[in-house]
Amino acid sequence: MLVLSRHRDESIMIGDDVMITIVDIRGDKVRLGIDAPAEIPVHRQEVYEAIKRENNKASRISPTDTKDIGQ
Questions:
Q1: What 3-state DSSP class applies to 68?
Q2: Where are the chain's structural domains?
Q3: Read out DSSP for 1-19?
Q4: Which of 16, 31, 55, 57 is the most exposed place for a label (fewest CB within 10 A)?
Q5: How buried is residue 36: exposed, middle or buried, by Cβ count under 10 Å (0-12/13-18/19+)?
Q6: Non-local CB neighbours of 30 within 8 Å, separated by 6+ positions
Q7: How far apart are CA 27 and CA 57, in angstroms?
Q8: What span, in angstroms and rounded, lies between the C-alpha atoms of 17 and 40?
């Protein structure tokens, strides 16, 4: 893991397309601004993990599980 120090209003570049800016620091909370192309999904970790769980659950559904949907 790369650990960087930044002050408010300073940025970090990831590749050529993603810029993370320190927007605000209050106590032990840091607010980040993330500028990334629309095709790059950006989620908080807990949201990303929930999406992965739901996708995994959906991938295990068999065609017979959905036969009554829409009837």
A1: coil
A2: 11-61
A3: -------TT-EEEETTTEE
A4: 16
A5: middle
A6: 22, 24
A7: 38
A8: 9
